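Section 5: illustrative case.
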């Protein structure tokens, strides 16, 4: 009880979009590690260089949203 895997610990972490991210694909860097990523909503596009936050981990993909700005 109380164990959180390293991927669970990623949830809520901040990072940077290293490429444009959309619902289909993208890439982020969090704590020096590069992850494949997608946005949490199909109508959101995150531009390269935007600070992001991890919403959840879906297998090998980080589901992210822009850290600053409104969530829709």
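Designed sequence:
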């Amino acid at each position: 009880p109380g164990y959180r895997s390293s991927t669970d610990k990623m949830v809520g972490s901040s990072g940077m979009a290293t490429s444009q991210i959309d619902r289909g694909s993208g890439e982020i860097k969090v704590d020096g590690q590069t992850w494949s990523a997608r946005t949490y909503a199909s109508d959101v596009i995150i531009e390269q260089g935007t600070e992001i936050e991890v919403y959840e981990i879906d297998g090998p993909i980080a589901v992210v949203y822009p850290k600053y700005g409104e969530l829709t």
